[in-house]
C-alpha cells in the first residue's frame, strides 16, 4: 500500500510539473541586426559586424563618394534602428583644412526617405522601426560642395577623412506581463479622501498621473501631391502637402531637359527657380486636411521653360522640399514634366497645314 501511494504521488508531481512547463509563456527573441552586406565605398569592419567604414579622399569640388549597406531584423520583436557615428579620423592636407568640416552627408533609404546635413553635425540618426524579418538598404553619400574659385574648399585640398558608423537596434514594446491570481484583499475602513484621491467603496484610491509623452524621434514625414496643371499659364506650381506633425518646409528646384531616350538629363537652371518669399511654408500636423502650397516662378525660370519647350517640346522641373521639425531634417523630391500640346487635327481628320 505504501509503495502504491508513492507511485501515485510521483505521477501527480510529474503531471503538475508538465502543466507548469506548458503554462510558462514563451519569450520572443529581442530585435537583432543580421544579414549585413556592404558595397561601393562602404566596407564592414569584419564579417558579420554592425560597423561600417566610409572613407573619402581626393574629392574635387562637386564630387561625391557613396556606398550601400543592406541589413535585416533577424529577431522576433520590433526594434528601433539607429545610425551612430562612433569614430571620425581626419587627415589634413598641405593647407591644414579638415575635410569633415566641408562635407555634406546624405543617408537615403532605397525606396524611402532621406536625410541630408553636415557631416560634422548630428552623431546619431533615428531611422525608424523595423519589424521582425524586415530588410532594408541604405545609401551613404559624402559630397564636397562647389563653393567657387575663392571658396573654402581650397583649404581642404589633399585632405581625407574616415568615418566609422555603427548600426544598432533596440527592442520596443513586448508581450504584456503574465497576470497571476491574488487573494481578494479585505475591505478597508472608509476614510475621507484627501486631495488627489477618489472615494471608492473600499477606501481612498490615488489618481494616477499620466506618463509624460515620449520624445519625438526622427524627422517629420511629408506627404506631397502635385496635380496636373498648366504651369506656364499661371507662372507657378501648385501642390498639396501635409506632415505627420507640425513642420517647416523650404523649397528649391532645378530645371532640366527631359529626353525621351535613356540619356542623362542636362541641368539648365539650378538656382532662383522660385521667388524667395514663396519658398518657405509651415504645415500643421496630419490631423487637419492637406494645405495648398503655391510657389511662384521667377521671370528667368519662366523664360527658360518657354525656350526649352519651344526647342525640345518638353522640359522637367525637379522640386526638392526640405522638411524641418522636432527630430531632424528630411528631403522629399518630386519631378514633373511639362509637355507642349500637340497640334489638333483639322476638319476631315487631316492634319492642318
Summarize the structure.
The protein has 353 residues and is mostly beta strands. It is built from three helices and 20 strands.
Task: Describe what this molecule looks like in 3D.
The protein is mainly β and 353 residues long. Among the domains are: 33-146 and 157-171, Sandwich (Jelly Rolls), CATH 2.60.120.260; 222-339, Immunoglobulin-like. The chain contains three helices and 20 strands. Strands 1-4-9-6-7 form a five-stranded antiparallel β-sheet, with no helix packed on it. Strands 2-3-10-5-8 form a five-stranded antiparallel β-sheet, with no helix packed on it. Strands 15, 16, 17, 19 and 20 form a five-stranded antiparallel β-sheet that branches. Strand 19 and strand 20 form a beta hairpin. The longest helix has 22 residues, at 2-23. The chain is globular and about 60 Å long. Mean pLDDT is 75; it is low at 11-26, 175-183, 190-201, 203-216 and 349-353.
Number of helices: 3
- Assembly annotation: single chain
* Helix content estimate: 10-25%
Beta content comes to 35-45%
What class would the helix/strand composition place it in?
mainly beta
* Major β-sheet profile: 5 strands, antiparallel
User: Would you tell me which CATH topology of the domain at 33-146 and 157-171 applies?
Assistant: Jelly Rolls
| CA(first)-CA(last) distance | 118 Å
Low-confidence stretches: 11-26, 175-183, 190-201, 203-216, 349-353
Topology:
Layout: H1 2-23, E1 33-40, E2 42-44, E3 51-57, E4 64-73, E5 79-91, E6 104-109, E7 114-118, E8 124-130, E9 135-143, E10 160-171, E11 197-200, E12 203-206, E13 222-225, H2 231-234, E14 236-243, E15 247-257, E16 267-269, E17 280-283, E18 291-296, H3 299-312, E19 314-325, E20 328-339
Antiparallel strand pairs: 1-4, 2-3, 3-10, 4-9, 5-8, 5-10, 6-7, 6-9, 11-12, 13-14, 14-18, 15-16, 15-17, 15-19, 19-20
